[in-house]
Write a structure and sequence with these properties.
five-stranded antiparallel sheet; 2 helices; alpha+beta
Length: 119
């Protein structure tokens, strides 16, 4: 996993809620590999492979894009990647939604953090 790659796993809520979370991360990480689309899925995933386009980063005072919108139900989000990518994702989601940090685990080169996002 590269230093900017981030994998996001979402459960709870529906596809619209998952898309709202992914949209919130776009301003920090650029476009995902795909948007959650299956309305019948109970778990959604998205992978971000790079940085946000110039001028959209949350670094240096940018707002990280247009935010994620609102959620219809609580969503559990697990973000996995480099410690820096996980920190940036957690910061972005905490600003975009009401969030509770449900813990983190670290490996040699990767970190994983779980957040509960509430409507």
């Amino acid at each position: 996993m590269s230093g900017t790659q981030l994998t996001v796993t979402l459960s709870g809520g529906g596809a619209d809620d998952a898309r709202a979370v992914v949209r919130a991360l776009e301003g920090t990480f650029g476009a995902p590999d795909a948007f959650p689309a299956d309305e019948n899925a109970t778990v959604h995933t998205a992978t971000f492979d790079g940085e946000a386009p110039s001028g959209r980063s949350t670094e240096n005072g940018g707002d990280g894009g247009d935010g994620g919108g609102s959620l219809s139900a609580p969503v559990t989000v697990t973000v996995q990647g480099s410690p820096e990518a996980v920190r940036r994702a957690s910061d972005t989601l905490t600003r975009a939604f009401t969030a509770r940090d449900d813990g983190a685990s670290s490996g040699d080169q990767e970190q994983e953090r779980q957040l509960l996002l509430e409507p």
